[in-house]
Amino acid sequence: xxxxxxxxxxxTLELRGISKIYDTGAERVAALGGIDLTVQRGEFVSVMGPSxxxxxxxxxxxxxxDRPTDGQYxxxxxxxxxxxxxxxxxxxxxxxxxxxxxxxxxxRTTALQNxxxxxxxxxxxxxxxxxxxxxxxxxxxxxxxxxxKPNEMSGGQQQRVAVARALVNNxxxxxADEPTGNLDTRTSEEIMGLLQQLNDQGVTIAMVTxxxxxxxxxxRIVRFRDGHIEHDEPVGDRRILAPxxxx
Amino acid sequence: MNLVEGLxxxxxxxxxxxxRSVLTTLGVVIGVAAVxxxxxxxxxxxxxxxxxxxxxxxxxxxxxxxxxxxxxxWRAFGSAETLPVSEAMRIRxxxxxxxxxxxxxxxxxxxxxxxxxxxxxxxxxxxxxxxVRSAKFEQGKFFTRLDEEGRRRVCVLGYAVWERLFPNGGxxxxxxxxxxxxxxxxxxxxxxRGGYGREDEVIVMxxxxxxxxxxxxxxxxxxxxxAREGVDNAAAEAAxxxxxxxxxxxxxxxxxxxxxxxxxxxxxTVQESSRIFTLLLAGIASISLVVGGIGIMxxxxxxxxxRTREIGIRKALGxxxxxxxxxxxxxxxxxxxFGGGLGVALGVWLxxxxxxxxxxxxxxTSSVLLAFGCAAGIGIFFGYYPASQAGKLDPIQALRYE
Lengths: 247, 402
Fold this sequence. Notes:
By secondary structure, chain A is an alpha/beta fold.
């Protein structure tokens, strides 16, 4: 692993001059116009902005699902902006945990099996997969639902399975894309409580949301407009939730 | 991701859609079963023919008048008049390499016994016919030199003739049948030879009787000869050829006006044609195997579309293009191998069913391996395109897919 001297500090991810331009042939649309952003280890960042502001594009690039048109992206010390598909898949597998708005669990597959999926692609032995997946489920408080399938669980439970799946590979950062978008207020708070709890234990989290209430649970808010960072500031009146379990 | 993991994923996915998986494999099941059953039928027929020819004797050599091109041995058989009866009668005395000589004259004639009758091939030949053709008897025995010398009105019935004239399996020896209204005493009944060539629809009688009573032809249609013990077929053929050429006063360079066909030649010809028959059957059957493969491809393409989101999730969680390809390829191979296995079972069952109807069918290990291998190959071939489509999907698009 080539440790960049500039990022030798504790930055988990660092974007330098990241731009993304969509060339539709007729016109060139700049979704991101030269972003600089650094997220330190242990941070809990919320990315906000109206639709079309470039936050989805940013999340795709942060998640190594897409490559920037220009710029450098250091993730855990590696410049991944120029990686080939297979190398990006490996980075997603080892360094990133995804939490999606619509949970994105595999249907007809138990919670435990869902959590093992990243381990399968990491080449972890079968017994070890089950051991680590069980541990991750315990961490999100779902040990008793390990053998339930997604359609047998509530939305909040499904999202917690997704969080367990994001944790299971000891990712450098968890990327949450509107994690509470499909949940009611009470369940949203549960999930945010869980994320805060994990963050307190040292997990780095970056989250996209457009709800101010939800963003207030984070430590820092980055606001986007028209492909640029408009504001980047710590949360003044942070809401701290006591971790609790779903009844 | 290793193979066991891939198999686990494939089986889970297939089990989630059991009915569709079973229906998808049906094409391959039928294809493999058809190939195995058809090849079993062809091989069975081939073995029947071989067994029948082997029954005729292995050191048998035929001489026919006229020249036939190689590979078309039956064409000119018996149609020319270059082998006089008198010459055929001298072979045994003058060609020491030859042990038995059975010249044959034949024609069809109306045969009657009581109220039953039929049209059969009547063969006039010498007593040597008995051992040259390795005759075996259901009843009685063959005629002797005395019958030949005395031009006696005696005959031996082929199995089919006996069945026709003695429908209740009655004792035929000593009975009198009428051939062209001339009464003949039955000396024996030959055992069934079966197979091709209507060898059983024949009545054999002494050559002298035949020429006096039925057809005073001076030329033979065929001479069946066996080599003497210790002399191989080729040597006997060479000696006989030399003798015949001298009799016919053929100069060096002049072509033979007779031709040889050994048992082996006939065997080869028949083998060749039944092999082509088997290939043809297998070819037709394998079309259904290919159709089955297309069925698998079709369903795999549907599956890939249906599971676009799953593919997106897997890619986001770290699956490489190769992992996704392998997953879907494994599914199609599992489908086709499963279908192949069922097909083998069904094919063997069909072959046995055919057997129970009295046809010979033989399931060879090679045909089973070949059909099964083809099924697996089809899984790979027809699974490859859908699998590579799945692998190519863009994770962002796939995740957004509803």
